[in-house]
Amino acid sequence: MSLPNPLIPGFNPDPSIVKVDGDYYLATSTFEYLPGIPVYHSTDLVNWTRIGHVVDREGQLDSRDVPTLGGAWAPTIRFHDGLFYVAVTDAMARGTLVFTAKNPAGPWSDGLAIEGAIGIDQDLAWDEDGTAYMTYSGLDTVTGNINEHGGILQVRVDLESGKALEEPRSVWSGTGLMFPEAPHLYRHGSYWYLMIAEGGTERGHSVSIARGTSPAGPFEGNPGNPILSARSTDRPIQNTGHGDLVETPDGSWAMVLLGMRPKGMTRAFSALGRETFITPVAWEDGWPVAEPVILNPRDGGFAYQDDFTNTDLDGGWVAVRRFPGAFASSEKVPGRLTLTSDGADLDDARPAFLGRRQQSQVETIAALVNAGSPESGKGAGGLAVRYDEAHHYSIQTDGATITARARISSIEQSWTRPAPAGPVELRIETREPNPDNAIGSLSSDTIALQAVIDGEPVTLAELDGRYLSAETAASFTGRVAGVFASSGTVSFDWFRSEGREPR
Q: Of 316, 319, 374, which Cα lies nearest the Cα of 9?
């Protein structure tokens, strides 16, 4: 089987997968973005379709006031006795949650808070008599400290009452690397296998595994650990870890996992953040052996267009710490998307920003913007590419001027020119860095902020892309690019994006 890599491109970290009959379902982290925890479906492990979100309404997560990096961390998706389960951490908010659904496309439950299982990266597994085991990393998301029990913890849990049935016990601490996390527990043959990530989610990331005859342990580590890591290699996919095992359609095995594609001469900057990858796995002498994760981009590029003719927004749109419907509508003006700002701009925690994950290393987004007129509400808005409230590039119009802006932590710069009369097309182009430029060759890419004037694109600013990367922003997310309103009401006739991988 030829497996594409990345399997699901762009900001799709911490993948978890389950096979039910001949169908595969995969869920990923979303942190402060809503709707949260997308669920993807495939029948062949190659072609994937987003079928819904676990978190699609108020109250399921408490995301309104979480800091950057808070929210939905590392879901595990499983199936047991006719129900789908997603165990997840609502970090710095509701804590350990379990959602259930009869249909993985939704609707999902409101989320059951689990008492007595404080940590992250919760996994669920059931033994032969139906006892549910929750296995997780002992990291306190309030203090950021390792739980006093240490390492990978486990409790038997009542999924009706939401209570742990015992005190947490340490079942394994890995091989001694930092941050043992992302546990998954499996029954295969005569053993129970406990697979974890170690080394942190940066360049030292790795996957290790142990086994025992009971789901509660004791567990014996694989002498060949780690079974997967890209550290100290020249592979184009780095930070590989946080894996989940699954049987493939032909009866062999594979691991889905997160990874990053750092760029630049020193391969230091990952524009797209943590993405979902896949690699084959073989069983040898009772242990899984994972192949290195190989870059294998899908042929051709991609193109997306939204003319906002549907009253419901496409499920690929996400917002920050609130749902898109709080400020965005494609019903208010038929055939247009209308955004209304409450005074917050891109520097604030809840901007009127509606974005889509950047999927390709080379990508252009464009939109036709109506601003500064009585019809649009005399507002200001445009296009932005965002990592968080302190790291974003944007170009906007208020009807009189066009302003390009860069915000990099505490540094800010802007460029302004007069706007033409009427609606204006704005563009943001992500380009490959110029290899002939010594400074540019160090970066991940270049980002051009443009307006189309008299039919020709005019560049207001061309910016270094390394400052919108996972390493610079220190974010667990990735680039999200889309439309925003910074004041008043702004409408958009259409939005387009197209991308490809570097040549």
A: 316
Average of per-residue pLDDT across 133-137: 97
Catalytic residue selected from 121, 123, 181, 429: 181
Is 56 labeled as catalytic in the residue annotation? no
**How many helices and strands (H and E) does the chain possess?**
1, 38
Extract the tokens encoding 190: 């005569």
| Closest to 37 measured CA to CA, from 105, 129, 96 | 105
Distance (Å, whole) CA 62 – CA 82: 28
Q: How many Cα atoms within 13 Å fall on the side-chain side of residue 1?
A: 19
Reported as a single tens digit per residue, the pLDDT across 60-105 is: 999 899 999 899 999 999 999 999 999 999 999 999 999 999 999 9
Q: Is 309 helix (H, G, I), strand (E, B) or coil?
A: coil
Residues found in the chain: 503
CA angle 475, 447, 464 (to 5 degrees): 70
From residue 385, give the alpha-carbon distance in Å to each of 404, 468, 487. Answer: 12, 8, 18
Report the pLDDT averaged over residues 449-477.
96
**Per-residue pLDDT tens for 155-178?**
999 999 999 999 999 999 999 999
Residue 182: which residues within 8 A CB-CB, separation 6 or more? Answer: 14, 74, 121, 137, 196, 197, 241, 242, 243
Label each residue of 136-194 as H, E or C.
EECECCCCCCECCCCCEEEEEEECCCCEECCCCEEEECCCCCCCCEEEEEEEECCEEEE
**What does the DSSP assignment read for 64-132?**
TTPPTT-EEEEEEEEEETTEEEEEEEEETTTEEEEEEESSTTS---S-EEPBT--SEEEEEEE-TT--E
CB 338 within 8 Å of CB 328: yes
Active-site annotation holds for 181: yes
Q: What distance in Å separates the CA atoms of residue 131 and residue 70, rounded to the nearest whole number?
A: 31
CA distances from 331 to 161, 339, 347, 350 (A): 41, 11, 27, 22
Q: Determine the Cα angle at 352 with ends 350 and 357, to 5°.
A: 90
Distance CA(191)–CA(195), nearest Å, equals 13
Strand partners of residue 344: none
- The C-alpha atoms of residue 305 and residue 313 are separated, in whole angstroms, by 12
413 Cβ contact list (under 8 Å, min separation 6):
405, 406, 461
**Tell me, what's the pLDDT at 300?**
87
Q: Would strands 456-464 and 446-453 be described as parallel, antiparallel, or unpaired?
A: antiparallel
Count Cα neighbours of 305 within 13 Å in the Cβ-side half-sphere: 6
Q: In DSSP terms, which residues pair with 157 in a beta bridge?
A: 132, 164
50, amino acid identity: R
